[in-house]
Design brief:
CATH class of the largest domain: Alpha Beta
InterPro entries: G_TrmE, GTP-bd, GTP-bd_TrmE_N, GTPase_MnmE, MnmE_dom2, MnmE_helical, P-loop_NTPase, Small_GTP-bd
GO molecular function: GTP binding; GTPase activity; metal ion binding
Enzyme class: hydrolase
CATH architecture of the largest domain: 3-Layer(aba) Sandwich
Radius of gyration: 29 Å
Cofactor: K(+)
Largest sheet: 7 strands, mixed
Structural class: alpha/beta
Function: Exhibits a very high intrinsic GTPase hydrolysis rate. Involved in the addition of a carboxymethylaminomethyl (cmnm) group at the wobble position (U34) of certain tRNAs, forming tRNA-cmnm(5)s(2)U34.
CATH superfamily of the largest domain: P-loop containing nucleotide triphosphate hydrolases
Shape: flat
Strand order of the largest sheet: 8-9-7-10-11-13-12
Helix content: 40-55%
Strand content: 15-25%
Length: about 475
C-alpha cells in the first residue's frame, strides 16, 4: 500500500488584490492545522466564520474556514480552505501561519497543479477531466469555457470509456479464439468481428470529429496575412479586429514587424498576424528582418491569407512576384494548412470589370485543382469581411451550434489518430482471415492503449509532470 503523501499548502486565488483570497491545505492530519489556525475543531463541510490566529493568539484576519474530511474532497485527502480578505500581504501571512502550524507534520508549499494531480492520483478525476480544470481556468471565450466544463464533467471521458469497452469486448472474443484453436471456429464470421470493428471505427471517427472541434475552441487558429507591400494587410487586420491596431498609409513597407491581435468568430479564437510585405528588394536592414519574421510566422500558421490587389489581378492576373510567393507558401506551410487568396480593394477595381465580376460585389471563388480559394473583399469599406469570417470557419471545418462539443488538446487528437490507425490496420488483418488473427489482436491492444492514455489508464510519470506543471499554483 502506498504511503500517504505529505500535506501541501498554497494560495489558491490569483495574485493581486481582491475582495476574497483563499489558502488551501491538503493532506493527512490537516485537522491539526485547522485547530492551530482557527482555535477550534471545525465541523465537516460547514463554513465557520472566525478569526485566523497567529502563533501567539493574535488575529491575522477574520474569514470563513471549511474542512473537508477524506475522501470527500477535491483531492480525496483532508482539505482545509481558509477564505479571508484578498490582499497579498494578508494572504502571505495566512499561508506562512499554516506552514508554521504544519511544520511537525511535514507541510510544504504546493507545486503547480499539485492539488489537481492528487485528485487524479486518488481517482477523483481522470486525466482528461484534470486537464479540463486547467482549460476552464484558461478559457478565452465563452464557448471554450462551456466545452471545458463538459470535459470536466466527464463527457469526453465517457466517450472514450465507451470506445474502450467496445474494443475490450472484441479483444475478449479474439483472445478466446486464439486460446482454443482446436475448436476450428471461424471467428471472423461467427462473431461478426468485421461488423463490430466497423462500428468501433465509425464511433471513433465521430469522437475524433468532436475532439477536433474542441481543439479549435481551446487553441484557436493562427491566421497570417501575407502578400506584397501595400496590398491592404494592415487594413484587413483593422477590419477584422474592429479597431485601428496597425498603421495604414499609402507608403509601401509601413509594417516592419509582426502585429498580432486575437479576435473571436462564433467563439473560436483567431490569432490574426499582420506581417511585413514580401518583396525581393527590401529597402533596408529593418525591412529585411521583418520579411524573415514573416516567413517564420507563415511556417507556424494554420491558415495563410495571401492578399493581392484587385485592380492588378483583374488586369494582369497573378503577378510574377505573387506567383513566386504562392510557390514558396506551399513549401513553407505546415502540412494541411490552407492558403486562401484574398483579392482586396474591390472598391477601387475598374468599372469595366463590373459586368464580369458582378459589380465588384464580395464573393468566394471555390478552390479548383491547385488554385486556392479566392475571397473578394474591400478591407477599407468592410465589404466581404463577414463573408471572410464565415469562409475561414468553413475552411478549417468548424460547425456552428456544436452544443455537445468537449474541449480537447493536441495530445488527445494524437492519441485518437493513433488509435484510428491501429483500427485501420486491424481491418486489413481481418481481411487476411485466420492466419492474421494474432496480428488482429495486437492492433486492437495497441488501439486500446492509445485510447486509455487519454484518460490516464496508461500514462508515464514524465507526461504527468509535463501536464500538471503547466497548471497555476494552488490548483
Amino acid at each position: 500500500m502506498t504511503a500517504p503523501l505529505l500535506p501541501i499548502a498554497a494560495i489558491a486565488t490569483a495574485p493581486g488584490r481582491g475582495g476574497i483570497g483563499v489558502v488551501r491545505v491538503s493532506g493527512p492530519d490537516v485537522v491539526s492545522i485547522a485547530r492551530a489556525v482557527c482555535g477550534q475543531t471545525l465541523k465537516p463541510r460547514h463554513a465557520t466564520y472566525l478569526p485566523f490566529l497567529d502563533a501567539r493568539g493574535g488575529v491575522i484576519d477574520h474569514g470563513l474556514a471549511l474542512y473537508f474530511p477524506a475522501p470527500h474532497s477535491y483531492t480525496g485527502e483532508e482539505v482545509l480552505e481558509l477564505q479571508g480578505h484578498g490582499g497579498p500581504v494578508v494572504m502571505q501571512m495566512l499561508l506562512a501561519r499554516c506552514l508554521e502550524a504544519g511544520r511537525d507534520i511535514g507541510l510544504r508549499l504546493a507545486e503547480p497543479g499539485e492539488f489537481t494531480r492528487r485528485a487524479f492520483l486518488n481517482d477523483k478525476l481522470d486525466l482528461a477531466q484534470a486537464e479540463a480544470v486547467a482549460d476552464l481556468i484558461e478559457a478565452s471565450t465563452e464557448a471554450a469555457a462551456r466545452s471545458a466544463a463538459r470535459s470536466m464533467e466527464g463527457v469526453f471521458s465517457q466517450a472514450i470509456h465507451t470506445l474502450v469497452e467496445k474494443v475490450i469486448h472484441l479483444r475478449m472474443l479474439v483472445e478466446a479464439t486464439l486460446d482454443f484453436p482446436e475448436e476450428e471456429i471461424d471467428f471472423l464470421e461467427a462473431s461478426d468481428a468485421r461488423g463490430q470493428l466497423a462500428a468501433i471505427r465509425e464511433s471513433l471517427k465521430g469522437v475524433l470529429k468532436q475532439a477536433k472541434q474542441g481543439a479549435l475552441l481551446r487553441e484557436g487558429l493562427s491566421v497570417v496575412l501575407a502578400g506584397q507591400p501595400n496590398v491592404g494587410k494592415s487594413s484587413l487586420l483593422n477590419a477584422l479586429a474592429g479597431a485601428e491596431l496597425a498603421i495604414v498609409t499609402p507608403i509601401a513597407g509601413t509594417t516592419r514587424d509582426r502585429v498580432r491581435e486575437t479576435i473571436q468568430i462564433e467563439g473560436i479564437p483567431l490569432h490574426i498576424i499582420d506581417t511585413a510585405g514580401l518583396r525581393e528588394d527590401a529597402a533596408d536592414e529593418v525591412e529585411r528582418i521583418g520579411i524573415e519574421r514573416t516567413w517564420e510566422a507563415i511556417g507556424r500558421a494554420d491558415v495563410v491569407l495571401h492578399l493581392v490587389d484587385a485592380t492588378d489581378y483583374l488586369e494582369n492576373g497573378l503577378s510574377e512576384i505573387d506567383d513566386a510567393i504562392d510557390d514558396r507558401l506551399s513549401g513553407h506551410l505546415p502540412p494541411g494548412s490552407p492558403i486562401v487568396r484574398v483579392v482586396n480593394k474591390i472598391d477601387t477595381a475598374p468599372a469595366a470589370s463590373d459586368t464580369m465580376f458582378g459589380g465588384n460585389r464580395p464573393h468566394v471563388v471555390a478552390a479548383n485543382g491547385p488554385n486556392p480559394t479566392e475571397i473578394w473583399i474591400s478591407a477599407r469599406t468592410g465589404a466581404g469581411i463577414d463573408l471572410m469570417r464565415r469562409e475561414l470557419l468553413r475552411i478549417v471545418g468548424w460547425q456552428s451550434g456544436s452544443e455537445g462539443t468537449f474541449l480537447a488538446r493536441e495530445r488527445h487528437l494524437t492519441a485518437l489518430r493513433c488509435a484510428q490507425s491501429h483500427l485501420d490496420c486491424a481491418a486489413e488483418r481481418a481481411d487476411q482471415q485466420a492466419q492474421a488473427l494474432d496480428l488482429f489482436a495486437e492492433e486492437l491492444r495497441l488501439a486500446q492503449e492509445h485510447l486509455n492514455s487519454i484518460t490516464g489508464e496508461f500514462t508515464s510519470d514524465d507526461l504527468l509532470g509535463t501536464i500538471f506543471t503547466r497548471f497555476c499554483i494552488g490548483k
